[in-house]
Each structure stands twice: as structure tokens, then as C-alpha cells.
Amino acid sequence: MSNDFSVFDLDKNKLDSEWLEQSALYYEHALKLADARADYDEAKAAREVVAAETDRKIRKSPEIYGLEKVTESGVANAILLQKEHKAAVQKEIDKRRAVGIVQAMVDALDHRKKALENLVVLDSRNYWSRPQTPKDDNTRDRLEAKERQSAFGGGRKRTS
User: Fold this and answer.
1) Residues 40/98, Cβ–Cβ less than 8 Å
2) Which residue pairs, CB below 8 angstroms and at least 24 apart, start in 121-125?
3) pLDDT at 1
4) Against a cut of 0.85, is the pTM above it?
């Protein structure tokens, strides 16, 4: 499982490339999630088989497992103490964690999609543009005259 977070370093100047990459990334990690879920289901089933086999062994020879008489709670507790069962439980836990990690990446890719959407909106509104002076000289002259006028008393006549 890689911790490559470079997929989240979005280049606002290459939004088209980022968008083209998004669906492939999502698909790749959605497949990984499906595989991780299948692995988890297999580990869970294997743990259940170990529990069932151990249950049968305990009921057949309870004295080997330290039980004087066979009770449901006694058998259940004896199963939990068996090395094979503990290993199967740990494998199930590890597979569930792997599902969580891949699910987190898929969720993060959903957030990446939203970030891309917002960057496109900002770009369409010229968020990163620089202010420019008007190209029309006449307009520029009017703006400069207005600035001079406000700098020197606002153009109002005084009455004494």
C-alpha cells in the first residue's frame, strides 16, 4: 500500500490533464477497494471455518482443551484461546484495515474531484488573472483625471 499523495498536488495550470487523470485514478482505486473487500470477506470466512473446526474438536475431546463439561460459553471461550483462531482473527483485522485504507483513498479521490470542480469554477472566473489597465487611452485619461481630482479636494468648489 503506497502513501503517494502526489495525486493531490493539483496543477491549476493543467486542469485539463488533471481531469483526464481523475477518472483513471478513481477507477484504479475502486478496483483496489473491491479486491480489498474480497480479501476481507475471505479472511472472515476462513476465521469462521477455523472457529467451526475448533468447536467440533473441543466438543469431541473437551478434556484436551481443559473443559470438564461441554457448555456453549465454555466452548466459545475455548475457541477464542486457540492459536489458530487468534491468527485467523488477526488476519481478518488486517484485511479490514486494508479495506479502510483503500476506502480512504477512494473517498479522498472524491474530494479531489470536488477540488478540481472548484478550481475550474475559479479559473472560469479569472481568479488568477492580473489586473490590467484599460486599453482605451481615453478611458485611462478619465481614470487618471478622476484620481487627481479626488487627491486634490474632490473637485468641489469652496464657498467662503
Assistant:
1) yes
2) 122/12, 123/12, 123/15
3) 43
4) no
